[in-house]
């Protein structure tokens, strides 16, 4: 039972639902019937009320059509008896009576208005839709009825009411669902009718005019909002949903496409016609009567603004879909942009603002197709109008336009890549940047709205670059410098490849580099054209082999070239330059140009030479190019073009040369050009147009400069070029490009920031300056060290700490009460903290400010706390160059900028605005975090560390400082040396890397006039200054009165041995060697020093035995944690000790060249003594060989060379014999040292080569030629030395005959060559 009850309930529910649906449908149909009945009654009532209506008249006498009333009555009879639903009934049944009323010219305006209201109601109630049979015919009939409405019998008030109704029906028609069935002509007719109402409303009420414009806007929106849904397939159009196959042809016929829409409806053809119509509205002119009776034509600004609004809507709604339709795209590329550039260059500020918006919208959606159009607009409109010379209002609009473009996410990088890095284009980004810098530069006057606006634009540009250069995905850093090692055609560019962005970025940077080099080449070319062309080869801008195309592109696209020289080259009869002329002419695109326009444009690029043969060659090349690029059959051959060119040039001279009194007439010109077209005449109208053009506007044949106005010839050339050149390249930021990009405007940007900060007093703008400063620093940390130095130097002067004329009291007062110095001070020291890796020369300014703060008693002791410095973590790894992870990024900006908000007088946070002046200054100094600059500098690059040391050492020597008291001087120098010590401790792990440079700085500061020796020397004696100390001690050798004291100090240093370590041992040797070079010094002192140096080998032996590690060294075997690390450290120590021993030997070797024979001989003996003591160091064969090659062989060779040098001098026999004696001693001791270490050396794989080196030197000494001074006594000792050596080698079986070794045979041959008399004794048969 429950189941049966449930089934009955379900059936009742279904039945009730069906009845409910039927009931609702009936109610809707009844409502529509009532609506139609009401509308019919309303129309009939208005017709009856008309005075012309009278039923007594016969139909032939009626002033109205009786069939209209009949049809209305017939419709009423059918309204409540429909045979089917209204949506299924053909719409013409209930539309025709109302349309007949509208189309009837005799109907009163009131009846027409009511009929229009009825049509509007039918459309809004959607009595029919797109699926209703006859819907398309009905929509077409509505359009025909509305556009055919004529108001013959009406008054102005009634006519305005009817026109308002027409506008409503027009909008209702396009918003109706069935409007998609309208054909292209119908939509165009409807839009045209709406514009007619717009035109008629100009002289009527404001309400009608506003409604007409609004309706026009609605229609444009409806048409172009549907454009993204329209795609073309084959010859027809279809709604989105089918596959898009194929694209529109470049032929106009394909773009119209005569096919029907598969689902009906208008398409691209009406969009093209409407857009063309809107573009034509930009050319609407108005005639203005002047007092003198003339009537000049000027552009109608209201119409232009109205047209621009419509065009903007069309572009916004269509978006990038326009790019799929070639005719519509070409209309934007050609017609629209030509109008925008032309009118933008001289229109009012309002029109200019609208034009900028239109171009911006085009950039968003269509920039890929508008590369050269955008360049022309930026160059001819924005850059020109924003420059000084235009009215303030125009400048403001132009600058605002530039800023709006710069606000776009990728605009600046795309402009830089497409224009600034293209040698054939202008530097748009650089022009924009420098223009904003120039406008924001205050120049000492009060700020204007223009300057503030430009400054904010400059900040937008800087922030964009800074934010994108910090991105992790902005590419690797790479090298800053660009190297061009091979010839790459500068006129060729490659497409951006997502799979190989690295190559593309490098290509872009190379093109920018080539562009800079081309400008340099142009300067050379103008001064000396041959050197200019040679520079092109040197800079790899053209190939080493003759390259006509490279020369042609250089002449064609390089700005600033002397046009006269170009003309001479192009007319040169040389075969190579004939090829250059051909390539040069092929860079022009004359399609669509009239002959005189093309000739003008061609002759603008150079100055026509005076020689007739050169002129002929140039005009022949032009005629050939022009003829083959013309699509018409006007000219029979290129000869016709050539003859006509000559005729035009002659006409130009005749018409515009003041020396020609009798001017040529038009008839004479036409007569002179008869039968030049292969025996036929050219059209008279064509020749007449040429004559008028030349007569009215001369061809400039001798101009040295080119006007930048967008002439018709230039525009046609631009359009033709855009057809063959690559499209606008869309790209994202790359770190290297960002750096290169900012480098173009770095100098002006820093100057503008500094100027704005200096002359501005508004706190908010000051904070914006600081934020811009940090953005510049964020960019400069990527290879722009000079920019960072310039930035710091500029802002240091705003701290008031570098004012030499201000007293401490004045500085403290200004520093404590003025916000600007506080901001600048915190900014400078924060940059020194965050960006110290990139600081170079500006460390001097930072140190100067720091010293001033110290003298003002504002520097806390923690800045120079050596204990905290020693605790700072320093590892060898931190000595490496900083990685990108260490760089300051955008994520840190908020934290940094918060510091500056604490300085505001209106911000009481942390009590910075409380307390007295001293407390405020001290609290503010804490924000600078000065101490961390020096304590945490362990990983800054070597260049920055060197610059910091140079600045500190120079300041410690008093350079650039003025002291009021001696105590003040001592405190300052002590402070600087404390900072030097802090830096040295922080970088102890790489002491050997930076201290040599510090040493050079220390030596240089002693030459300062203000050098203060006492405090400087006291602070210089730090544990890290041994090299500097010993080199300062070596200064004592230069003066006789201090020589003995210096020697005694050095002897005491070596004798004690406590202070000599491996860290300073090399420095001690250098210092001692300086003693030997001193002139007029006692020989005994030098010999004593040589003995001490020879005995110092015992220190090396001691360190070698104990693996000693002094505090200054970085070696310690005990510190190793594994056997492998211990072995490595031991090996490093042994090598280091051996290097020190070699350095000692080299000091002896250099001393053997002394002028004093006594010192030379003693140096040889000292060398021998040190060799004997160092037996433990030389137990390895490689060490022995290395020592012999670097020291002993070198000593023998140098002594021999010196002896021969004296032998060639006149009157130098004494010196020669003295040097010969030293050489004999050296050879004898060399013989002993060799035999002593024979066992170790013989084990070396390189012993054979070593032995041949000994024999070669024996041979050299044996056959020494002393010229006119007679034979050398060396030949007396060489045989004995050879006997001694070979005998011991044979005894120790080092030199014995072996089957696998030829050393015995080689030695036999060498002895026979060197000293044959001992051969038999040494090698008995």
From TrEMBL:
Residues 248-259 have a biased composition (Acidic residues). Residues 507-697 form the SEC7 domain. Residues 235-259 are annotated as: Disordered. Gene3D superfamilies: 1.10.220.20, Arf Nucleotide-binding Site Opener,domain 2. Its main location: cytoplasm. InterPro entries: ARM-type_fold, GBF1-like_TPR, Mon2/Sec7/BIG1-like_HUS, Sec7_C_sf, Sec7_dom, Sec7_dom_sf. Keywords: Guanine-nucleotide releasing factor. This is SEC7 domain-containing protein. It is found in: Cytoplasm, Cytosol; Membrane. Transmembrane segments: none annotated. It comes from Stylosanthes scabra. The keyword Coiled coil does not apply. It is a peripheral membrane protein.
């Amino acid at each position: 039972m429950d189941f049966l009850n449930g089934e009955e309930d379900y059936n009742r529910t279904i039945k009730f639902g069906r009845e409910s649906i039927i009931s609702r449908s009936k109610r809707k149909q009844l409502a529509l019937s009532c609506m139609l009945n009401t509308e019919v009654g309303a129309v009939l009532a208005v017709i009856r009320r008309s005075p012309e209506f009278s039923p007594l008249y016969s139909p032939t006498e009626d002033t109205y059509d009786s069939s209209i009333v009949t049809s209305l009555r017939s419709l009423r009879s059918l309204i409540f008896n429909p045979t089917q639903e209204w949506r299924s009934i053909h719409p013409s049944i209930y539309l025709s009576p109302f349309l007949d009323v509208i189309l009837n010219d005799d109907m009163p305006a009131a009846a027409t208005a009511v009929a229009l209201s009825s049509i509007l109601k039918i459309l809004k109630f959607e009595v029919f839709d797109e699926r209703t049979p006859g819907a398309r015919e009905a929509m077409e009939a509505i359009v025909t009825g509305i556009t055919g409405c004529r108001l013959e019998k009406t008054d102005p008030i009634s006519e305005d009411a009817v026109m308002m109704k027409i506008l409503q029906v027009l909008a209702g028609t396009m918003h109706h669902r069935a409007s998609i069935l309208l054909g292209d002509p119908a939509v165009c007719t409807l839009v045209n009718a709406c514009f007619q109402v717009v035109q008629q409303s100009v002289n009527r009420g404001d309400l009608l005019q506003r409604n007409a414009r609004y309706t026009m806007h609605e229609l444009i929106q409806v048409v172009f909002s549907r454009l993204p849904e329209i795609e073309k397939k084959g010859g027809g159009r279809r709604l989105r949903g089918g596959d898009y196959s194929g694209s529109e042809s470049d032929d106009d016929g394909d773009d119209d496409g005569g096919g029907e829409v598969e689902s009906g409806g208008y398409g691209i053809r009406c969009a093209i016609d409407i857009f063309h119509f809107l573009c034509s509205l930009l050319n609407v002119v108005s005639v203005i009567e002047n007092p003198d009776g003339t009537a000049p034509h000027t552009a109608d600004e209201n119409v232009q603004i109205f047209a621009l609004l419509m065009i903007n809507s069309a572009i916004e709604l269509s978006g990038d879909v326009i790019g799929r339709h070639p005719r519509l795209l070409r209309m934007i590329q050609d017609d629209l942009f030509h109008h925008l550039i032309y009118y933008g260059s001289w229109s009012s500020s309002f029109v200019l603002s609208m034009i900028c918006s239109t171009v911006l919208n085009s950039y968003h959606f269509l920039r890929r197709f508008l590369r050269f159009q955008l360049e022309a607009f930026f160059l001819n409109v924005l850059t020109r109008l924003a420059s000084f010379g235009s009215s303030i209002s125009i400048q403001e609009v132009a600058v605002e336009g530039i800023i709006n473009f710069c606000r776009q996410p990728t605009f600046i990088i795309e402009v830089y890549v497409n224009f600034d890095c293209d040698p054939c284009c202008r530097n748009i980004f650089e022009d924009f940047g420098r223009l904003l810098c120039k406008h924001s530069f205050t120049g000492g006057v009060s700020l204007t709205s223009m300057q503030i606006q430009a400054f904010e634009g400059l900040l937008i540009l800087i922030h964009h670059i800074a934010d994108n250069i910090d991105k992790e995905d902005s590419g690797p850093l790479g090298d800053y410098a660009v190297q061009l090692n091979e010839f790459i055609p500068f006129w060729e560019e490659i497409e951006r490849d997502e799979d190989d962005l690295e190559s593309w970025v490098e290509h872009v940077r190379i093109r920018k580099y080539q562009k800079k080099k081309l400008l340099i080449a142009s300067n050379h070319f103008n001064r000396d054209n041959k050197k200019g062309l040679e520079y092109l080869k040197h800079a790899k801008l053209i190939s080493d082999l003759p390259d006509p195309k490279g020369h042609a592109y250089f002449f064609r696209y390089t700005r600033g070239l002397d046009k006269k020289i170009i003309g001479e080259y192009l007319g040169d009869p040389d075969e190579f330059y004939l090829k250059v002329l051909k390539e040069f002419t092929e860079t022009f695109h004359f399609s669509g140009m009239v002959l005189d326009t093309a000739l003008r444009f061609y002759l603008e690029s150079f100055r026509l030479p005076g020689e007739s043969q050169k002129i002929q060659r140039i005009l022949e090349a032009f005629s050939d190019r022009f003829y083959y690029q013309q699509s018409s059959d006007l000219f029979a051959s290129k000869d016709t073009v050539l003859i006509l060119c000559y005729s035009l040039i002659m006409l130009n001279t005749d018409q515009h040369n003041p020396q020609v009194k009798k001017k040529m007439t038009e008839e004479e010109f036409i007569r002179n050009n008869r039968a030049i077209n292969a025996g036929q005449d050219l059209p008279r109208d064509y020749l007449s147009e040429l004559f008028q053009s030349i007569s009215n506007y001369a061809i400039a044949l001798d101009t040295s400069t080119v006007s930048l106005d967008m002439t018709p010839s230039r525009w046609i050339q631009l359009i033709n070029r855009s057809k063959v050149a690559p499209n606008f390249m869309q790209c994202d930021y790359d770190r290297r490009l960002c750096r290169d990009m900012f480098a173009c405007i770095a100098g002006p940007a820093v100057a503008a920031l500094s100027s704005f900060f200096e002359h501005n007093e508004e706190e908010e703008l000051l904070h914006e300056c600081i934020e811009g400063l940090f953005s510049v620093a964020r960019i400069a940390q990527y290879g722009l060290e000079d920019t960072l130095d310039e930035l710091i130097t500029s802002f240091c002067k705003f701290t008031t700490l570098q004012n030499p004329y201000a007293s401490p009291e004045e500085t403290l007062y200004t520093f404590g009460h003025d916000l600007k110095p506080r901001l600048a001070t915190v900014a400078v020291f924060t940059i020194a903290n965050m960006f110290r890796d990139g600081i170079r020369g500006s460390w001097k300014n930072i140190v100067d400010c720091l010293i001033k703060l110290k003298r003002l008693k504002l520097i806390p002791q923690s800045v120079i706390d050596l204990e905290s410095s020693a605790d700072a973590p320093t590892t060898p790894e931190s000595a490496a160059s900083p990685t990108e992870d260490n760089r300051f990024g955008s994520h840190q900006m908020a934290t940094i900028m918060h510091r500056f908000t604490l300085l505001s007088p209106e911000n009481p946070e942390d009590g910075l605005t409380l307390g007295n002046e001293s407390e405020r200054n001290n609290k503010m100094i804490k924000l600078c975090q000065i101490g961390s600059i020096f304590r945490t500098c362990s990983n800054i690059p070597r260049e920055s560390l060197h610059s910091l040391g140079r600045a500190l050492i120079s300041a410690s020597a008093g350079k650039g400082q003025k002291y009021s008291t001696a105590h003040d001087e001592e405190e300052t120098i002590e402070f600087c040396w404390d900072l030097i010590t802090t830096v040295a401790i922080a970088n102890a792990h790489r002491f050997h890397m930076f201290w040599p440079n510090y040493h050079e700085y220390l030596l240089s500061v002693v030459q300062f006039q203000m050098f203060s020796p006492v405090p400087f020397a006291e602070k210089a004696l730090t544990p890290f200054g041994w090299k500097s100390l010993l080199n300062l001690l070596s200064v004592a050798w230069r003066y006789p009165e201090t020589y003995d004291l210096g020697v005694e100090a050095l002897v005491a240093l070596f004798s004690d041995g406590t202070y000599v370590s491996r860290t300073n041992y090399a420095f001690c040797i250098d210092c001692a060697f300086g003693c030997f070079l001193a002139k007029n010094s006692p020989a005994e002192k030098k010999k004593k020093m040589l003995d001490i140096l020879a005995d110092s080998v015992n220190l090396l032996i001691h360190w070698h035995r104990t693996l000693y590690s002094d505090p200054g060294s970085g070696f310690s075997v005990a510190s190793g944690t594994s056997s492998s690390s211990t072995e490595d450290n031991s090996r490093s120590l042994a090598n280091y000790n051996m290097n020190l021993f070699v350095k000692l030997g080299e000091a002896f070797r250099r001393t053997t060249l002394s002028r004093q024979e006594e010192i030379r001989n003693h140096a040889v003996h000292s060398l021998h003594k040190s060799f004997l003591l160092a037996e433990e160091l030389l137990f390895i064969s490689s060490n022995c060989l290395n020592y012999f090659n670097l020291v002993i062989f070198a000593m023998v060779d140098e002594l021999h060379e010196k002896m021969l040098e004296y032998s060639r001098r006149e009157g130098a026999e004494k010196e020669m014999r003295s040097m010969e004696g030293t050489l004999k001693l050296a050879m004898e001791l060399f013989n002993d040292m060799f035999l002593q270490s024979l066992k170790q050396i013989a084990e070396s794989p390189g012993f054979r080569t070593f032995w041949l080196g000994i024999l070669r030197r024996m041979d050299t000494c044996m056959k020494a030629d002393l010229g006119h001074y007679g034979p050398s006594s060396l030949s007396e000792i060489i045989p004995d030395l050879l006997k001694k050596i070979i005998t011991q080698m044979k005894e120790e079986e080092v030199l014995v005959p072996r089957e696998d070794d030829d050393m015995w045979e080689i030695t036999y041959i060498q002895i026979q060559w060197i000293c044959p008399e001992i051969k038999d004794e040494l090698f008995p048969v």
